[in-house]
Specification:
Number of domains: 1
Largest sheet: 6 strands, mixed
Strand order of the largest sheet: 5-4-1-2-3-6
Helix content: 25-40%
Strand content: 15-25%
CATH topology: Nucleotidyltransferase, domain 5
Structural class: alpha/beta
Shape: globular
Order of helices and strands: EEHHEHEHEHHE
Number of strands: 6
CATH class: Alpha Beta
CATH architecture: 2-Layer Sandwich
Number of helices: 6
Length: 234
């Protein structure tokens, strides 16, 4: 079976700068779906845009009181697909990263975390096309190295491509941005109670039947939040 994976990043600057007081985690997220669902999902997103008369890019930072119902409908679309459309992200506590393990190279470390986010959901005997946001992932050499490492560690599956695309032209990557932005906001506690963004996150939490978006078990399949333990251990 062929799958497509649409990726986005949030707060990646905490790896290269001193973390801001309220930003604790770098997050890298991914939306996973069978390739055969892509066209249908794009049509449904377009229909939701037409319904609400919103034709710009879907982005977490654009959520506002006037657009709350539009974004709720997008979340409901994601949820309507059940396990046919899944989300996974990794949360990295930036100030605990030991850069000596990454040869002092922060970009290398960034792609290692990308690998950890992707690798554990790549299953045998499938094909995967992985699409990253071009704004962040500009180093073609590192991206091809990511593909090579994924191929070598998943010998019974095929990584057909790892490619950077402009997110403003890719609706499912924009959906990944929305889901990741919500998760990062909850983990980093950057959303004020009662705001449109807070209400949107609460809508997702209610639909997922969770008290709050927080690290999940390894086996969570619909909305998986992987907080990597940088201290090692069991």
């Amino acid at each position: 079976m062929r799958f497509e994976v649409y990726c986005d990043e949030n707060n990646q600057d905490v790896l290269t700068q001193k973390p801001r007081n309220h930003i604790r985690y770098l997050t890298i997220g991914s939306l996973w779906t069978p390739a055969e669902l892509r066209t249908e999902a794009k049509i449904k997103i377009k229909e939701i845009k037409e319904k609400h008369k919103r034709f710009g890019e879907i982005k977490w930072r654009k959520v506002s009181p006037s657009g709350k119902e539009f974004y709720k409908d997008l979340l409901d679309l994601f949820l309507s697909y059940g396990k046919e459309m899944r989300f996974r992200c990794i949360a990295v506590e930036a100030d605990k990263v030991d850069w000596a393990l990454h040869e002092g190279n922060r970009e290398l470390g960034f792609y290692k975390f990308y690998y950890q986010m992707l690798h554990h959901w790549i299953l045998d005997f499938n094909e995967y096309a992985i699409f990253c946001d071009r704004k962040t992932n500009t180093n073609k050499r590192e991206m091809q190295e990511l593909r090579h490492v994924l191929e070598c560690s998943n010998l019974s599956s095929q990584i057909v491509q790892v490619q950077a695309l402009p997110s403003n032209h890719v609706a499912l990557m924009q959906m990944a941005d929305l889901l990741l932005g919500m998760t990062a906001a909850r983990l980093n506690k950057t959303v004020k109670p009662g705001t449109a963004r807070d209400q949107l996150i609460q809508h997702l939490e209610k639909r997922l039947n969770v008290d709050t978006l927080s690290p999940t078990s390894r086996g969570e399949q619909k909305f998986n939040i992987f907080q990597i333990d940088l201290s090692g251990g069991w």
